[in-house]
Write a structure and sequence with these properties.
With 312 residues, the chain is mostly helical. Helix content is 74%, strand content 3%. The chain contains eleven helices and three strands. The protein has a three-stranded mixed β-sheet with strand order 2-1-3. Putative odorant or sperm cell receptor.
Length: 312
């Protein structure tokens, strides 16, 4: 239940207070967000309409791009508005909504990365049983479970936030609403709530990273029995996924699996996590994945032929 609050809105201090730097922030991160939208939508559309990208790996990549797109959208538009505004005011309800969206799609991304690792483990270590184990129905069930888990995690963040009373000040030294910055403004002892927060968010990031790294150690060990060409192809796919995992989970662990201590680099790490990672993920998957690039070229070629016929 929500506590009695005298604070009905918060003021975000943003990334900088310098007007010139604020305009620079707008330009730079608008470029990153535009690239995020275009890149992830391109992957989503390519996988949706390509006949060659029907394997479980691309099924999970589809949802990873969707989660990245929504995750970045929960932060970036607000950052743009605030970078051009002198008053960065956000209401209490808007703040809770942003926390909900941030953790919903952030957890969805983490869980989807785990599912992609499971898919690679089955494909490489149990190739004969792969079509049965990772059937379409199983993949859909796994995505539904991951979505439910993400929702429960996000709801937990909101429940913890609703337990915090705010009686002033209302200045959040951040560019977005998250539970950790709000804990510093609460008019109560937040030790227990912070412990629950770290246990929840921090455990998801840390346990997911351990599961992922363990799975890839097993995968790499099993590759010793594969052919040279099989090892090359498997290593290429696994390397791409490991890069994405490190880009996503290392900043996540830094932010959420630690005591409530503020570091000067905090905003930089979270900007990279919320804006940079969703921008880099589609680049990594398209630049290092020959099948995705080939499918994109084929779709573009078909589109050009259709356009030419229509003009004729």
């Amino acid at each position: 239940m929500q506590q009695n609050n005298t604070v009905k809105e918060f003021i975000l201090l943003g990334l900088t207070q310098d007007p010139t730097k604020q305009k620079l922030v707008f330009v730079i991160f608008f470029f990153f967000y535009a690239g995020t939208v275009i890149g992830n939508l391109l992957i989503i559309v390519t996988i949706k309409y390509s006949r060659t990208l029907g394997s479980p790996m691309y099924f999970f990549l589809f949802y990873l791009s969707f989660a990245d797109l929504c995750f970045s959208t929960s932060i970036a538009p607000r950052l743009f508005v605030d970078s051009l505004s002198s008053e960065k005011v956000i209401s209490y309800n808007e703040c809770l909504t942003q926390i909900f969206a941030l953790h919903l799609f952030g957890a969805m991304e983490v869980f989807d990365l785990v599912l992609m690792a499971i898919d690679r483990y089955v494909a490489i270590c149990k190739p004969l049983h792969y079509p049965t184990i990772m059937s379409r129905r199983v993949c859909i069930v796994l995505i539904v479970i991951a979505s439910i888990g993400s929702f429960l995690h996000s709801i937990t963040q909101i429940i913890l936030a609703l337990r915090l009373p705010f009686c002033g000040p209302n200045l959040i030294d951040h560019y977005c609403c998250d539970l950790q910055p709000l804990l510093k403004l609460a008019c109560m002892d937040t030790y227990v709530i912070n412990l629950l927060f770290v246990t929840n968010s921090g455990a998801i990031c840390s346990c997911s990273l351990m599961i992922l790294m363990t799975s890839y150690i097993v995968i790499l060990y099993s590759l010793r029995n594969h052919s040279v060409e099989g090892r090359r192809k498997a290593l290429s796919t696994c390397t791409t996924h490991i890069i994405v995992v490190l880009l996503s989970l290392v900043p996540c662990i830094f932010m959420y699996a630690r005591p409530p201590v503020t570091f000067p680099i905090d905003k930089t790490v979270e900007v990279f996590y919320t804006i940079g990672t969703p921008f880099l993920n589609p680049l990594i998957y398209t630049l290092r994945n020959a099948e995705v690039k080939q499918a994109m070229r084929k779709m573009w070629h078909i589109k050009n032929i259709s356009e030419s016929k229509r003009l004729i």
